[in-house]
Design a protein that fits this description.
The chain has 201 residues and is of the alpha+beta class. The chain has four helices and 19 strands. The chain has one domain. The strands form three sheets. Strands 1, 2, 5, 6, 11, 12, 13, 14, 15, 16, 17, 18 and 19 form a 13-stranded antiparallel beta sheet that branches. The model has no long low-confidence stretch (mean pLDDT 90).
Length: 201
Amino acid sequence: MKWQDYQLDENITKTDETLTLWKTERGIVEASEDTLTCPIRLGDKLEGYVFHGCCKLLLDTIVETDEGATGKSIVREVGTPFLMLGNTEKISEHFSIASQEDLERMVYSNRQEFLVKAEDLLNRFLSMEKVDCCDYFRKNSGLIFAFQNRNDRLDILAADDSRLIYKAKDIVFVQNGNKIVLTSSHEVVCSDNGKSVIIKK
């Protein structure tokens, strides 16, 4: 099946508690209690969710080099809809049906308004030029997140047990085991087992 075969389910639920969607030594993604959720399906299979609530992203993109540490910690309060593909079995039991009051708390007057926002986000993700770069993670039980940024574009976080990719407007961070590549607006840093090369732009 192709990326374009992903479809939204019209059942809107909410989280019953704060859920950890992803966590490693490098970072964490959490969805707070009462976050609205809408399932994403591939055929009959549940593949992910669109979330909207008071959520957070913490990510350490600091790299230790011979010249000292470079990079930064990313701390984001995510208050706009974002999507996640993967990890559905571990979290689906922590959802319940969302009420009209739950929708209104997130400034939706009805279910359809949330579904329109979720559909727009999913379509934007599926139409990305480099969406196939996430194929490895999709096929290897990894996780893929798409967060909306202030420039009305999508920041992508993809991860599995040993690999991590974070791509935003002003940073690309790639980790594969002990190998790290960090690209920012002013430099490119390559690190492998403590040995590093820094290229200034």
